[in-house]
Amino acid sequence: MKVKQDSDLVPSRNMKVKQDSNLALSRNRSFELLNMKEVDKITELIKSEFELHPKAQLIDYYKLFFQGNFGPGHIISNKSSAREFLEIELEESTTFEEIDYQDISYINEFYRVNLNVINKGIIPFDDFLDAFLMSAKLKNEISHKEWLVDWENIEQQVIIMKIPIENIEKQSPELWKIMKDKQLVSHSNIYRKTYSPHYRLINAEQFSRIKC
Q1: What is the spatial distance between Cα 159 and Cα 154, in angstroms, rounded to a whole number?
Q2: Does the CA dihedral 198-204-206-207 come out positive or negative?
Q3: Contact 186, 67 (CB under 8 A)
Q4: I need a surface site. Which of 13, 18, 90, 209 has the fewest CB within 10 A?
Q5: Which of the pair, 25 or 98, is modelled with greater confidence?
Q6: What is residue 201's DSSP assignment?
Q7: What are the sequence ranges of the domains in the chain?
Q8: Digit-coded pLDDT (tens) for 164-176
Q9: Would you state the pLDDT for residue 26?
Q10: Nearest by Cα to 30 from 140, 144, 150, 175
Q11: pLDDT tens-digit profile of 49-76?
């Protein structure tokens, strides 16, 4: 399935995200100053997510780009707990997405790899876990302030492309508050109920090593 290139996706720069003045950013660059390569990367990742998960909400797009930037390092405490959480999720999960993996590369190259590849015997448990743990280190790092600027541009592009997200004007300030407080985010309820996401983030190098 492809995203239709019709009037619904024609850029309209008159559409703006209304930001609370207290959350205004001091940015180093504006959306208009992004080079075309950066704009294309953002646009393609938004399109890809819309094709795969058309019911994704704004917080799901945020999580997508956050993961494509920071990877799994923020959720890995130690190998023992990572193994335990993976075992528990595999044991308790009964429904999985059909796709085995999703390329979510943004500033860094990462894949969401479906835990069901372990159940299918495609990737052994220990190989999967090792690849996940070895994906914590980032090749390209940016500051939290730089990330806020990036997300502002990404969110604007979501609106320019007219991605159908209900009540986005309400979702946006709620998400910005979470971001400013540096809280981790979960997928939206509608995303979880519709797509049953059970995956781990694995970088491109490790993914290439374990993919059969």
Answers
A1: 9
A2: positive
A3: no
A4: 18
A5: 98
A6: E
A7: 33-210
A8: 999 999 999 999 9
A9: 36
A10: 150
A11: 999 999 999 999 999 999 999 999 767 7
CA distance 117 to 89: 13
- What's this model's pTM, rounded to 2 decimal places? 0.82
170-195 CB burial, b ≥16 within 10 A, e <16 = ebbeebbeebeeeeeeebbeebeeeb
Question: Tokens 């479906």, residue?
Answer: 114
Ramachandran bin of 205, using left for φ above 0, alpha for ψ from -120 to 50, beta for the remaining angles: alpha
State phi, psi for 122 to the nearest 5 degrees.
-75, -45
Q: What is the mean pLDDT of residues 132-155?
A: 93
The CA–CA distances, whole Å, from 93 to 121, 129, 198, 208 equal: 16, 17, 8, 26
Q: At what angle do helices 125-133 and 79-92 cross, to 10 degrees?
A: 130
Total residues found in the chain within this entry? 212
